[in-house]
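Ticket #4471: structure output looks truncated?

Reporter: J.K.
Steps to reproduce: submitted the chain below (276 residues) through the standard prediction queue, then opened the result file.
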Amino acid sequence: MFMITALFFSLLPASQLTAGQTAIEALRDAVIRAETSEKASNAYKALFTKHWPSDIGLASKESNTSIALHSVWEASHRPQKHFDKNTHWHWRYDPVKTQQFVDFFRKRTSVSIPTWWQKTILNTEMEPGRGSACFGPLPHGQASSFIVQKDSIAVMLSGQKVGSLPLSTEILAFDAIRWKDQALVVVIPLGGPGKLYLFGPDAKTIVWRTDVWATGRWTVNGVVIEMVSLVLNGDSVAVFGEAGTAYAESFNATTGKSIFRFNTSYWQNWSESWKR
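Returned output as attached by the reporter:
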């Protein structure tokens, strides 16, 4: 059995929890409390190396959405021989099985998954004992753009200015979307975490800003193409991105508080290198 859910644990008095069960809870709590991608990455490794998610049904019952997404991601994996003449990878994850993860993601989060991101997830190549990489099509239909001005960077959406960023802002990938009479803007730099902003109606006031963990990559060698899209879901906004590894993060649009975070490589700490 992979794990008993947090809900079940909460129904039992502490005196009835076994040492093994309390150890699992401690490992789960470390994941939930993680405030950086590095801490979350290490916490997932500690949890999954001891309690590997192999059953989709059990994994899907996990009460924490972030842990549930990673658990079902691992449980749905089925390595399949497949030579890619472009990348020269010899393995991939069976896309039919991986579709089970996509279906679970959609059901669990109620978020509409961009078509380009779904195709990326279904095209995950891997190398046993080392790592994995996602390759997908470019997003299309985005109406956002930016203009470098004399003293700032103007974020444009459908021809109108919706936000203003410092001229020193580094932009590798970005997107913008309207939410009520305001605008949500995500900016992913070349290194380090990205930023998600909520701009007020005046396109100048920043209501809140928060970190987007994105790929977790701090240094990059060679040419990098990163893609990112924003998707609204009621009063929350999801950030979908990919730059070799795919990620999805959701935030409360009113407060900027994180709802869930998912990354196929555990922020550059590939499970293929430490799974049993």
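Triage note (M.O.): checked the attachment and the full token line is present. Residues 191 and 220 are 7 Å apart (CA to CA).
Status: closed, working as intended.
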